[in-house]
Batch of 4 targets.
Target 1
Amino acid sequence: MSMETTAWTQLHGVLNAERDRRPFARATLRRIGAFARPHRRRITVFLLLGVVTALLAVATPVLAGHVVDALVSGGDEGTVVRLALLIAAIAVAEAVLGILSRRLSATLGEGLILDLRTTVFDHVQRMPVAFFTRTRTGALVSRLNNDVIGAQRAFSNTLSGVVGNVVTLLLTLAVMLGLSWQITLLALVLLPVFVVPARRMGTRMARMQREAAALNASMGTRMTERFSAPGATLIKLFGRPEEESAQFALRAGRVADIGVRTATAQAAFITALTLVSALALALVYGLGGFYALRGSLEPGAVVSLALLLTRLYAPLTALAGARVEVMSALVSFERVFEVLDLEPLIAEKPGARTVPDGPVAVEFDDVRFGYPSADKVSLASLEETAALDTRGGAEVLHGVSFRAEPGQTVALVGSSGAGKSTIAQLVPRLYDAGSGTVRVGGVDVRDLTARSLRDTVGMVTQDGHLFHDTVRANLLLARPDAAEDDLWAALGRARLDTLVRSLPDGLDTVVGERGYRLSGGERQRMTIARLLLARQRVVILDEATAHLDNTSEAAVQEALAEALEGRTALVIAHRLSTIRAADQILVVEAGRIVERGTHDELLAADGRYAQLHRARSARPAARVPADAPAGTPG
């Protein structure tokens, strides 16, 4: 490895490690060891290959010196040929070992990435909804990409580099001291001239790198917001293209400026180190030649010393920067472990039960609930704040009690923010009650297995979400083993089969990010079709028909009436068509049930429900046409 290459390597390490220099506990190292244990055989072979490669690297300069001595002393041709063949064999061996080492490095690194990514992904999936409502998606994805790759470098680069460089350094020093201890000591005097500028320039480059990363992140965030479907719609409706262009040009100009400064600093850095390398070689040739002419040193030894010099400075410089590389890898590991150490608030109990067979009742027994504070469900680094907000836990549900009998439809009505959706979210355990009990099929939901609860309780929210995937894939989320006839049957009952048949690829048509290639009403009917396909015994509709026009609503209500027959349903709706048909209506205000009864009973009581009824009757809700394009307000 040349001195210039080593300089680049060290610079790269500094750029990646300057972000953090915290001390690390032994517990972090033990956890790293636990991840590395399944790969210990590969790691051992990998390190042995590094040692052998280091031995070969030192052998070549020594043999080159012997060739020069043979030429100067007039040795026979056979000796020179044998030495040349040996040098060639070493070169071939180095090439083969290099390929094997690279393959093993890739296998080891990618295996570790796979282990870390799957572990973090599985852990994040177990986190409660509150975690996802607070964390920034980009920061979370970065843990699965950048930080995992940074951790992988600890094994594929840093570990082998440290071992190989230590072996190379010791062997090179031993050989050089044996050839000429005077020249070796003088060569080492130039080491600070080589290392100190590298460290200082590396720190400066790291600052510019962080500045460039921040500017790129700002530019990227602006592009992401403006290029999403809702963001682009907003800009077209209210934005000023000239100002948007000027703002983007300003950010892009800053990125370009920091790029020029970084490139200039890098060029100066490499030029200075190349000069130091030339001065060191000049010292060896000058002093070595002086000793050779005086007869106190063989000419071949001068050549060997010159070649070994690069083998000496390279590992010395790399080891001088090894700390920052190790710190960089440890920072990445700690950031990954930080996510893994965040315990999910909702966990399945050992020995959890399944929901009993048959019709299912839903019961709330004196349920009280407060949303958890940020420090209970999130990380400051994932929210990009200095510290998490410890406020929270204020009670929003106060002693809620009711029972939905098997096959009954219970409607929840009330003002916005009264707690209706919160009640609905406690049934599928998107959150857990603070006190009291939520029962499904007579069993506390906290005593049920997650799979059993998912198979029993289905939910359609107001903003029905679709993945950027095909119609088929979005439907199969509900029932992966469903046949194609089942998919068409569900679409037909949701009054969506005609539309899907008209799409270019039918069931295999991609619906776009969040389903934005469909209208609001079409997206909502797609989520209802998914619910119908799942055939769960408890159904929760949270404003499920909010985006449908009168015709589509009537059609879907017919389908829902068929689907809800014999099933227990909790329905949150403002439309009277849904509320009238409910077996029981609960009026929720400020987290309490203030009235309950049938539609006629509550109107006769002339209480809060009657007030809501009169207000909504006097103020008809706006309708969104079924064929309205995606993103149309309404």
Target 2
Amino acid sequence: MAAQDNSGDNVNGDAALTQIDWQRFDDGTYSANSYIHRDISLLHFHLRVLAQAKDPRHPLLERLFFLIIFSSNMDEFFEIRVAGLMQKLNHADVASTPHGMRPSEVLRLIAGITHEAIAEQYRILNEDVLPELAKRDIRYLKRDELDAAQSAWMKRYFIEQVMPVLTPISIDPAHPFPRLVNKSLNFMVSLEGKDAFGRDINLAVVPAPRSLPRVIRLPDELTGGKEHHVMLSAVIHEHVNELFPGMTVKGCHQFRLTRNADLNLADDVEDIAKALEGELENRRFGDKVRLEVTTNCPQSIIDFLLEEFELHANQLYRVNGPVNLTRLLFDFNLPGLRYEPFTHMVPKAFRRESFEKGEKSRSMFTAMRRGDVLVHHPFHAFSPIVNLLWQAANDPKVLAIKQTLYRSGTNSEIVQALAAAARNGKEVTAVIELRARFDEASNIAVANFLQEAGVVVVYGIVGYKTHAKLMLIVRREDEHIRRYVHLGTGNYHAGNAKAYTDYGLFTADPDISEDVHKIFQELTGMGKPANLKKLLHAPFTLHDQLMAFIDDEMTNAQAGKKAHIIIKVNALTERKLIDKLYDASQAGVKIELILRSMCCLRPQVPGLSDNITVRSVIGRFLEHTRVYYFYNGGDERLYCGSADWMDRNLFHRVEVAFPIEDKKLFKKVYEQGLINYLQDNVQAWELEGNGQWYRCHPQAGETPHIAQDYLMATINEVSLPDTES
């Protein structure tokens, strides 16, 4: 067990909650204080991400990137979670199960945590990251830091590149306050004097078009080739007077408005694509939930904006820097300031010579017939998935290809290969989930592109997101039909495969292939739920089977036998599973949970969850694998899948969990994907019953162990970095 740091490297839950007075009712349910609120738990995950920005183990530019990720996470948190709570509050401030908190209570907690966290984010930026970058001559220059030549260049840049696309809007009876786009950068300008029509204008709004870059690199001839930049906000601020000739600019202050960005799509829509396109436009102008201003913004301007947007003071966030750090992106890579690149390996089964009978080209189909092949991204390359599709697209023996797509793009090789297969006469079906949050527009474009190529495009089931990761290839071999399958825990997205940890299984197993075939029939046709042999399938069998697996462990524990559960998922929020885990803990089952983000279960509470531990690993890659392990009296069960243990995944999405049956692959997933993470004593955090997360540190004499670095070394044979801080 790694030592916990109690000196401040922690994420606070309810620190005052030292004793949980929980109850178990006659119907088997537990009292509200047995659970952590999911939105508070999600917010604590974001704080664990923020903590990476001050971790000296990460290269400096990666620490800056963690600040950017935190900003992006917080944007979505306000757009979806806070917006949802505000809607509930407007409807009725009533406590909901299972946590028993009213929306107003949750919003007050969130406001306290987020104000403190965002202040810390900008402190890290201004006191840690930017000064360290400046030592390496990477600078974000302020207006008063430019020399004469640089100032002259900036003025020309404003006149030639910025001013032509700006539209200043005066605030007067003829020009009401403009309807501002969600998360757009805007400037509130206070003025003195008369305009061209002789009117006294005191205020104007200047929206910054999204077509303009937020960070501008100064020319090499002005910096000696150094990475010196200015912010667009500084350029506009310095020369905003050019927009108001004959008037005096008294002040210019940037602000940013966050709106509700969740989509409200009815279950009875006739055309889901058309309905989504309409909703996407509404997303840009949803209800207002947050206002960001800079710390030097006058109170009079703040009061005006709060009144205009009908927001309260606790929805105001003063920031000491740019109001949108997500646009502080960088495209430079200097030695020692980014993670060292590594080669994404191809599994040996796909590297060795595998040839079809009578053919010279290497065949992935031959390799898959020899046995199951497992890939573990990003340590393994994404290319085998792409190569399999291209082989299928060009193989005269392939008759049909079916695939689910959750997040993708028209420039994706996956999409290009599917289109090529259709043009080559294959029967190609793509089940595209249009409602993948914030990728809806991209997925509509993918659907249109594939349809033009001749692909049969299906949008899944209205009311149930298609989240399963499935590929099915049907091939005629010696007058027989054989199916080849890929199943994954992550999306068919090459970019994600380099940043997310995910498992993928290539198999020609007849039972699994038949199961996948039946699921595609469900998705594209009609009929009763498929009777599957090996796969667990939400919303039909997955939840019930998981409950039954836990029951089996409880039975073994009560009989005095070894009972052990290890679960690695992104989130655990589903109440019935939590209650069942509480029951199992009380029956003596050892339960180890590895959760990336949300956890509504309270571990290590006497009498309630003594035998449950919860940890989270945050590092270079986003943890995304879902693995379910049950000891089962020695006849061990191990599944990988697309589903987290959440209501939406188990009851409102199409999900698939697949067994790992090959003994060698089973051992790899168990040792590398589970035990390895339980041994992490550097990047891991542990959760206490009061909701507080503590960063783990090696005990005296204990060797530092970082799970992701171990996988890089084990799978890719790279040298481990020095883990000492």
Target 3
Amino acid sequence: MVNVVIESSTTVDPDRGSSDPIIAAIDIGTNSIHMVIVRIVTALPAFSIIAREKETVRLGDRDPQTGNLTPEAIARAVGALKRCQEVAKSLNVQQILAVATSAVREAPNGHEFVRSIETELGLAVNIISGQEEARRIYLGVLSGVEFNNIPHLILDIGGGSTELILGDSHEPRTLSSTKIGAVRLTTEFLANNPVSDRALSYLQAYVRGQLERPIDDIKANLQPGEIPKMVGTAGTIETLAAVLNLDKNGQVPDRIHGFKIQLTELRNLINRLRRMTVAERAAIEGISERRAEIIIAGAVILQEAMTMLGMQSLSVCERSLREGVIVDWMLTQGLIEDRLKYQGSIRERSTLKIAGKYGVDIPHSQRVAELALSLFDQTYGQIHTWDKSIRQLLWSAAILHNSGHFVSHDAHHKHSYYLIRYGELLGYTESEIDIIANIARYHRKSPPKKKHQNLQNLTKIHRTIVSELSAILRLAVALDRRRIGAIKDVSLNCDLATRECHLTFFPTDPLDACVLECWSLDYKKPIFETEFDLKLLTTRG
């Protein structure tokens, strides 16, 4: 029997009559589902928090045989999300941004769970990668902590994963996500309470082994003489800070943002807590019953990270992933132009970084991307109505469509799919990365087919996006067949009455007949014609 723990808090909204948008961000984690509701203050730009909601649902209690999310955990999550929607509606929320992390992205039925949420509740949930989770945590901390250009180590201990970030308010120097979390490690290593010396030692050794690589990466990215500060976020760290900072009356402080955790005090607390039963821990002010079950594993992660990094203390930040989701939304809306401005181009920079990693012919890919976007823009409202966010997916796919050559020329379109799909593109959700990978996958050879395994996790609308944009990408690839920029511009106009589409291309060199490009267009256009039910007619301008 699982007891569901619900916590909520609402502050008075002084700008209730304001026209500024009210946005909610939901974090579907391994241990809990959190929601924050904010009013976006567009004039600053900034946001003010109106309400917070938290419900412990333990999605991480997965089937030990299959790794699937269990029906019981799914039911708890659906109930919690429905209640979040009700709260959001009562506070006039205009948009809900929901992301799912470790438990959902690792579960074999994670995508099925997300689809069921959309069907049952009408709530779109985006699964994000570990690195993308770390990036958004960084954005959330930046919104609540002044870095003053000093490097900061950010540690976020979740139920299923731990994120470590090094940044100084500019570009993050390192982003890592490691599969150690309070729920995961409790399940795997701490079956008995109190915790024995042997079990504790084994857990500590395991955590050190898992943290070694990301911490080595952090140390390699610190400049000689730099002395970083450390910031901790999320439930485990907030609980530990609350217990270590009980006031003289034994009460938990109302707010723990900025409170300190000293390594020596943390070690003493771990030794004290691990000799207790779960019930005894839960009796301590500041530790809930559900947190009492997993607090030892989370505290050990914190202790080992601080020890390995040589940090004697850290400050608590109450902002994390949820607030980072809000900041990321503000960036995509063009509302932020301050110290976070660089983040606005994260998608472009991440795409180009991966292109460089796999030796992509950048000038060729950029020409293909320009041609693809031109075709996309000219046919908007005629044969498609996809918005700017979908346009950017096409751009990334065009830049990376030939990345599979890094593996082999043969079937390179299939290799491109895998390199993109598992290449940790930042700024995109898992479903968006899947769409990009599939658009690139179908720039040549067979068109998308339902039987293809790589399409199985896509929703019907996402499959439509892949089919239509890959057809457009095929034409763009044909237009730069010789990879010399032979065609400088195109004009495309569709007559829906006659079901004809007229494409006029303009050579860079007026004397160039562009014979190979014309042949390639004729070869590739049938899939475009079938997809849009149009006859494509090409002429030289």
Target 4
Amino acid sequence: MRIVLNTLLLLAFTNLFSQNKVAGTVIDANTNQHLPYANIYFSEIEKGTFTNESGHFSIENLPSGNHKILVSLLGYETKSVNITLPTSTKLTIYLTASAIEMEAVIVSTPFHKLQSENVMKVEQETVANMKVSGAVNLADGITNIAGVESVTTGLSIGKPVIRGLSSNRVLVYTQGIRLENQQFGDEHGLGISDSGIESIEVIKGPASLLYGSDALGGVLYLNPEKFALNNSSHTDFGGNYFSNTQGFNTNVGYKTSGDHFKFLFRVSLAEHADYKTNSYRVTNTRFSEQDFKAGIGYQKEGFKTEFRYNVNSSKLGIPEEIGEQSTNKAPLLPYQNITNHIFSSKSSLFFEKSRLDINLGYIYNDRKEFEEHHHDDEIEHEDDEVLEAALHMKLKTANYDVKYNLPTFGKFETIVGVQGMNQVNSNYGEEALIPNATTNDWGMLATSHIHFDNADIQLGARFDNRTIDIASGLRKSFNSFNGALGLKTDIAKNVTARINLASGFRAPNLSELTSDGSHEGTNRYEIGNIDLKSEQNFQTDIALEYKNKHIEFFANGFYNAINNYIFLSPNGNTIDDNPVFVYLQDDANLYGGEVGFHLHPHPLDLLHIESSFETVTGKQANAGYLPLIPANSLTNILRIEFEKPWLKKGYSFIKLTSTFNQTKVSAFETHTAGYSLWSAGLGGSFSLFKNEATFTLSGTNLTNKTYISHLSRLKPDGIFNMGTNVMLGLTYSL
């Protein structure tokens, strides 16, 4: 491993730093008018500016080499421009008017930063849009992305599901590093606040080539908010009120950037009472969360670096049955008290024709769970010190990700890299769900993007090794080779096709290998299987997209074959009056996809009609169905966007989500009835005391429908999901 790292550094340092300047003009392609306030952004350097009132721009202190400029402006198609520095030529960039939303920068995949240029299909959604839809938190908001759902325990705990796969089969990245927080547990949520998160990207399907083990089902990539543009400062504060839980969240943030140094921070607080259904409040779904995020960056000539820190502390009630009916916000027993510290650094060295990226991270996850037998009375608890945690685990994870972007050779762009992780799990409570253990990962990869006149090809290969040293003296080691091949081409005018073939793997986690005990809230005694093999899969993904000025249409289909799929099954025995479940393996297949369109008819460009359908089926080789597979669903949205002298970025929408009956269930599940939910909202920005204020008003489940989601862990107890909820939000910028 040391030899590989030294080789990458040696390759990198054969080049020299230099600084450059680029200037140019942005022009309307149809009218030839100069365009003011267009955003100019160097995606790899993370540096940008705006055009002035005459449409001109200028950026200094840029490193030599090949770079990509993204030019965007509301009402125009985002344009990507390649440039080689140094240059004395002034740029002239033409933008084409379009009613389609601006393309955003894609961070989770290499090479190209616009989705229209990517070989791999990536879905992206902003947190702002999630809040517009009435999302209470991050776990709730990700369900707005096609092909993504959430396994929930009440309102506060949610685990992402990508095309039917979840838990350790879906890898979550935040601040550029993999999030590790004991995600093996049925009721272990993300532990991340949406405050200070700018957008979310989703890679559907195996992404082991880029991320290694646990990316077998896909990747959820959380992009933190950007630093301020050079020589500017920004302050904002705001909050949201939720009628159903009588809850709120509020946050304040500040960021400033000079020529070289950048700084930002954001503080947030959220509290919610038990959520209400049509008939009752669901006892102990209450929760609270405090979050702090900060970052500092430095940039000069051919070097940039940033360091970010996030601490999140949450107290989450665990619902078991319908009991106390109140709007108190302090959780009852049982509940979780979780503190998550995330440290990350992200650095890039720019050379004449290449770049070295170094990402380092450290996560300290402190999980305490308190159970009822530690206290005689069901009362509210404000001081954890009076209780002893029944379960107390500390998970410390250090990881690294080093990639070298080689000089472009003809039609080839190539990246080589190494990644690794050291993880230590320690128990401090009287119970131990999983033993003390140390996990070490390392992997090496190479991937290339090949540009042809009418097509783009991306391919790559990777080797990984995972070693788990268990306190009992056992050692388990897993190895895997994986690869990916993708093709993007225009098969007709305005029609783009993408075909991706990829393999992925997942090593068994500690719970699957070593469990031996009753798990709180699962009502079962689980016994691990130390002889489990790695899961290995191969997925075929085909995506078609038609796009012109006024209509977009997409159709995505996938087939995912998984060898050695790990699952729980009862063996007929009982221990402590709980049925015994053991871990077994069998081959499995998942298939399905998403189809939809987005229409904004001429001349009514302010009107947007969107519709999407998603489906997934999961089966074992023995013809039985897999558990926790989302039901088919259809979403229809009618949205109007408008501008008034007193209101900017105005919008209103109405949405109908229809979830169909789920009858394809595992042997240990029951059928789930379908349901339809209405939601609506409006909002916009206006001037208040010469500064911008933004308001949102939205309502979900407007008919107060009584329903149960198939992915709710409260379903076996017949507990309904949340009823009508109205959210009012306000943000003020200075």
